[in-house]
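Listing S7. Sequence submitted for prediction.
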Amino acid sequence: MTGNNWLWLGLFLAAIVGMVVVTGWRTRQRLRRRLLASWGEFPEARRQDSEASLKAAWQAAAQLRPTASQVDDLTWHDLNLMAVFKHLNQTESSVGAEALYAALRGFDFDRPNVSAKLVAFFTEQDAVRLQVRTAFAHLGKSDDNQSRRYLLDTAHYRLSGTWRYTVLGWLPLAAIVLIVLAPLAGVLLLIGSLVTNVVVYQQHRERLAVELNALRYLVQTIATAQRLARLATPQQAALKRALVKLAPITRHAFVFRTKTGSETEIIADYLGVMLMLPFRAYNKVLTTLSAHHEDALALWQALGELEVAIAVANYQLAAPVVCHPQRQATGITAAGVVHPLLKQPVANVIDWGQSALITGSNASGKSTYVKSVAINAVLAQTLGVATAESFALAPGHVITAMAIQDDLASGDSYFIAEIKAIQRVLTLAAGGAPVYGFIDEILKGTNTVERIAASAGVVQWLTATQALVMVATHDSELTGLLGAAVVNWHFQETVSATGVAFDYLLHQGPATSHNAIALLATLNYPATIIEQARNLAETFERTHAWPRG
């Protein structure tokens, strides 16, 4: 090879190295710009975590660390808490997203699921926060990564017969040695072993795709923890303690590395196939994980707390109004409370120490107010924040019966689904635990007489327990039937010739206006309908009976 040829080869290799370096630098700069621009903003919709994956991880985590209270599926759906989660989800990894989801689904009564000290740290320490977010961004997100399930039951995922992969993996290396002693035999063995390994790898990779992907994310999570343990955060000591026994797992990080699609990764993949490295390393990782199970749980807990704290710190900057809730002996009191998902919410007060009936017309704000209180009762006890100027509460379960639907799969009618939903509130209250119950349009799936009678019975029974219930209803008769057993609030509207206007503010006492018929008039219903409706309503209010046809 001439000198010029060596020169051109050197220039070619230098160009490749330069391209790799420049590409890496540009990628890091793009990530840095994105992370800086996203701080203090609601998360972008660029990457939505799968709720099914998040829920599966939470269910596994709940077995590893049970909590005193859980937000059940119906309450989660009623309050649209997945949308609240998305508002909060400024996380960069699945570890963080899963931890945040779990934090919203279960809580203990003695403390929130996030450290106020850690939130304050990330609010103030811009440089360290960026480093932490960058490390998690390199780990990235992988739906259905199964890490929580591996932590729950490591033995279940072990592979059998791994000795075969070890033998197959050593054959190409043995063939290379044999080439020196017997070239032809060595070459034949090398070709044969490589073909065999490729075929075996492809067959088994399809069968074990989920397991290999899960272990990849698990190993990379531990490698990320090593990087984070070098940073001076309040979690540094906890990370270092957990890594003492788990660090050997990162020796396999080359085999179970993050997929980037680069040329060097393709070469490394071929090497892994030839030597059967993923299958050979699989059980070794699980053995270490199983032997130091408590350390692994502590590590995932510490990592999750980092990203949850960052997400809460970000939300405190992004949300128009946020406060740190206080504890009190009973009930909930708040000023300037708003619904966290509304762009232009109306602020209201809460002074809830007695079960309450809320009356008023449709669209006046009853349901929104009830949901505002319920969502903030969850946020206050899980993440230690509330969308209010001030917020104080006594610990308690949060349970709702609001967005009821008939269940065709189980054959339940609307009314059956409704009474089952309300029964959840009764069952929880019957156990003597403090309960915040929220019921919207109570028992509307049946006739007026039985609805009012049964609703009065339900609310009256609940007032004798440790439960506080907030019931939105159109049945103004309940205010008279229940009397002093409940406090009455209402929302109201103003009807004029030009239409209807709502102030969306909570008012004391029961609703006294009857504007449904007037609303029909504002929408140009036929005059005969309006007149007949008014006559019938006046007759009923005077005689408490409907005229016979």
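Caption to Listing S7: primary sequence and predicted structure tokens for the chain studied. The chain has a mean pLDDT of 84. Residues 411 and 417 are 9 Å apart (CA to CA).
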